[in-house]
Write a structure and sequence with these properties.
Blueprint: H1 19-25, H2 45-69, H3 72-84
Helix pairs in contact: 2-3
Length: about 90
């Protein structure tokens, strides 16, 4: 038995567990493809960089446009709410 008082013949493994190990233990049911991390569409750091720049730039332009083109209190409120988008 293991330290968790289970009747399993194999001892418990601490994390991290590899995908190959999971595939072997589940008889091929859990694979990288079934989890959606097959590696076909790798996401690079450049993708995050461009997405961050797009969100920040779009929010900045929208906030300034709200201040310029909307009435005083409404423009300030919209500008404040748009400024929260990159933070969230």
């Amino acid at each position: 038995t293991s330290s968790a008082n289970t009747n399993s013949p194999t001892p418990l493994r601490p994390y991290p567990v590899s995908l190959n190990f999971l595939e072997q233990r589940t008889g091929g049911k859990i694979t990288a493809t079934s989890l959606g991390v097959g590696g076909e569409d790798d996401v690079s750091l450049d993708d995050f960089k461009y997405a961050t720049l797009f969100v920040l730039g779009g929010s900045s332009v929208t906030g300034v446009a709200a201040l310029a083109f909307l009435p005083e209190n409404v423009g300030a409120t919209v500008c404040y709410l748009v400024a929260l988008i990159p933070i969230l």
